[in-house]
User: What shape does this take?
Amino acid sequence: MINASGYAAYSSTTALKPYSFERRDPGPKDVVIDIEYCGVCHSDIHQVRDEWGGSIFPMVPGHEIVGTVSAVGKEVTRLKPGDTAGVGVMVDSCRECASCKRGLEQYCEKGMVGTYGAKDRRGDITYGGYSDVIVTDEHFVYAISPKLNKPAVAPLLCAGITTYSPLKHWEVGRGRKVGVVGLGGLGHMGLKFAHSLGAHVVQFTTSSSKTKDAMRLGADEVVLSNDPDAMAKQKASFDFILDTVSAQHDISPYLSMLKLDGTLVMVGLPEKPVALPSMAMCVPRRSIAGSGIGGVPETQEMLDYCAEHNIVSDVEVIPIQQINEAFERVLKSDVKYRFVIDMASLREQ
Ligand SMILES: [Zn+2]
Ligand SMILES: [Zn+2]
Assistant: This one.
């Protein structure tokens, strides 16, 4: 076994603390990664606090993992020691169902295996990236260009692919008018991608203080969602709206901004069900949809796209000792736009 150390939640009500555990010895298809950076995703907080139910403790969160390959099993072909590599939200799936065969492992009919807080196919509990080393099957390890700034790459593995995938699926690009609702970890990546894909992008935000930043990140227009006149001007003009807000909110104002056959995609996962304004859905014909992360091939495609177009996340790098404080700040949206843990801080204690 490989000794690992990290930070874990021991229960849903206590702060994260240092934790020592073991990783499996690498099998023939496994890649061992020395973790250098791990992003802090809002879902880490949901799961640490057992807000979705079924959390397993102790829990080592983290599914935006970047590091350097230190060893590979003898059947591994895509990666070698010294390569920069990443692990995202999942570490396994059945590989046999229709979804897996289409490269949509996140929608595996038998359920994908989460990077942390899940039971893998061996029956072992998975531990995530708030730690110094991870052993993962090659199929779920991504090659990352050394050109990209490592800490700023980490959030691409969850926030990046969660926004890239729906933009690609609904064919956002030149000639399309696209709205992005919310300017946080997800929203700022959606904005960067939509802009890069050539769309006319309108950023919706509740705070006028974010206007300048949204323009810098690629918005063509910024609309304050609490300004009824500004909102009314956008009526029935969008092809696509990406709603990244995780707090409970009313989607009707955004729905009424879609043109005929426009689509509103929700990726923010509010806790309670969202009310559907049926009249606004029917006249004119409009769609509401959801989307979850991305499959393995699309995640690699997104990382390659980012290397080609020099896209990374805007991050605030923290030592792991500040993780509990960082959680509180994420809940207050007080971060621009993603915290990333520098795992060198783990070795310092
Ligand atoms: Zn995430
Ligand atoms: Zn499957």
